[in-house]
Amino acid sequence: MTVYFIGAGPGDPELITVKGQRLIRSCPVILYAGSLVPEAVLDGHQASLVVNTSELHLDEIITLLRAAHERGEDVARVHSGDPSLYGAIGEQIRHLRALGIPFQIIPGVTATAACAALLESELTLPDVSQTVILTRYASKSPMPAGEQLADLARHRATMAIHLGVQHLAKIVAELLPHYGASCPIAVVHRASWPDQDWVLGTLADIEAKVSARAFKRTALILVGQVLGAEDFADSALYREGHRHLFRAGAADDTGCR
């Protein structure tokens, strides 16, 4: 018996991995986060027990997992996006380890990746940004020391900010000294869902644009020069004359031809 923490992806039912889909269709028990995972992700399942955990607290979820373990039934524990990012699986894993219940994590497509695809952007461009910072805005619970938004903004890297659209004015104020008013920023609402929507602007005008759309939750903020960059170097990977192991006539990694 195994509990599989499965990343369902950002919303589009087709953005789940083949492995994740196979496990959902084969596990006799499914526990899914119904507030963020569309039921279409479960299409084709043959489970005898399907539970939407959006209204359950941690102890109730662990009770269901333990009961499945005692029956010897595999569990598809389905989370949105990638379960290792803001998936709240850490506390579940801690309980499973204490109970001796086996588990595996099945990665999923992140909201950040879905937003980049929607914006037709590469988040790491030569000479512009080679770093992506995934973070959230500290509101109800504090951030660890050194991880406040202003600390991260000093790097001027591409940044994806979760759970922050309701605090956009404060976020803009913290980003401005480091990125500048002309820096591109996008706010994407429910990326890959049928009702997806987004706005692209600058730190100077993004608040007005988001206010006009009335985004309140389930939105991701992307900020960085990559969103508007046109003047950047080609990557070395496809550059003519660049030698690497897999290109005909190139040197191998020992330096020998």
From TrEMBL:
Pathway: Cofactor biosynthesis; adenosylcobalamin biosynthesis. One of its GO terms (molecular function) is precorrin-4 C11-methyltransferase activity. SUPFAM superfamilies: Tetrapyrrole methylase. Transmembrane segments: none annotated. The keyword Transferase applies. It comes from the Bacteria. The keyword Methyltransferase applies. Keywords: Cobalamin biosynthesis, Methyltransferase, S-adenosyl-L-methionine, Transferase. GO terms for biological process: cobalamin biosynthetic process; methylation. Residues 2-206 form the Tetrapyrrole methylase domain. It holds the Pfam family TP_methylase. InterPro entries: 4pyrrol_Mease, 4pyrrol_Methylase_sf, 4pyrrole_Mease_sub1, 4pyrrole_Mease_sub2, Cbl_synth_CobM/CibF, Siro_Cobalamin_biosynth, Uropor_MeTrfase_CS. Belongs to the precorrin methyltransferase family. This is Precorrin-4 C11-methyltransferase. It comes from Phytopseudomonas argentinensis.
